[in-house]
């Protein structure tokens, strides 16, 4: 029998797209979510090419997610704890829309990469 991953899963509503790999969702309070395994260019970059790609990633993600009901999954650590999930005031998690992993969608559409590009 396949065991589900340990963590926290809940339905959430997307309230705002921040950029190509970060969104705000509402559960019982607003939570900022950084998409796990998804690196999009920054829209606030000083590099013009990165900025243009960041704006395109933001626009695409906003089109896909704004005002949608999604499923948020926050993976637990090796001990089954989710206490250390915050980074820069965001949780790191997976977001699913109609059973599609949005991080994978952003990567497949060319708006992000699976690993950070330096």
Commentary on this structure:
By secondary structure, this protein is α+β, with helices and mostly antiparallel strands. The chain has helices at residues 48-65, 102-108; strands at residues 7-19, 22-26, 30-35, 69-75, 86-87, 90-97, 100-101. The chain contains two helices and seven strands, in the order E-E-E-H-E-E-E-E-H. A five-stranded mixed beta barrel has the order 1-2-3-6-4. Strand 5 and strand 6 form a beta hairpin.
* Mass-distribution shape: globular
Element order, helices and strands? Answer: EEEHEEEEH
For the largest beta sheet, what order do the strands appear in spatially?
1-2-3-6-4
Overall number of structural domains: 1
Report the average pLDDT across residues.
Answer: 86
Alpha-beta content class: alpha+beta
State the separation between the terminal residues, measured CA to CA.
40 Å
What's the number of helices? 2
The percentage of residues in β strands lies in 35-45%
Poorly predicted parts:
none
CATH level 1 class label:
Mainly Beta
CATH architecture term? Beta Barrel
- What is the CATH third-level topology name? OB fold (Dihydrolipoamide Acetyltransferase, E2P)
């Amino acid at each position: 029998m396949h065991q589900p991953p340990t963590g926290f899963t809940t339905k959430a509503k997307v309230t705002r797209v921040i950029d190509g790999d970060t969104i705000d969702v509402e559960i019982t309070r607003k939570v900022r979510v950084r998409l796990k395994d998804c690196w999009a260019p920054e829209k606030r970059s000083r590099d013009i090419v990165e900025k243009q790609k960041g704006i395109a990633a933001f626009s695409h993600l906003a089109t896909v997610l704004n005002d949608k009901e999604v499923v948020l999954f926050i993976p637990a650590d090796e001990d089954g704890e989710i206490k250390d999930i915050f980074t820069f005031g965001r949780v790191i998690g997976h977001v699913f829309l109609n059973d599609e992993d949005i991080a994978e969608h952003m990567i497949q559409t060319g708006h992000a990469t699976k690993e950070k590009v330096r």
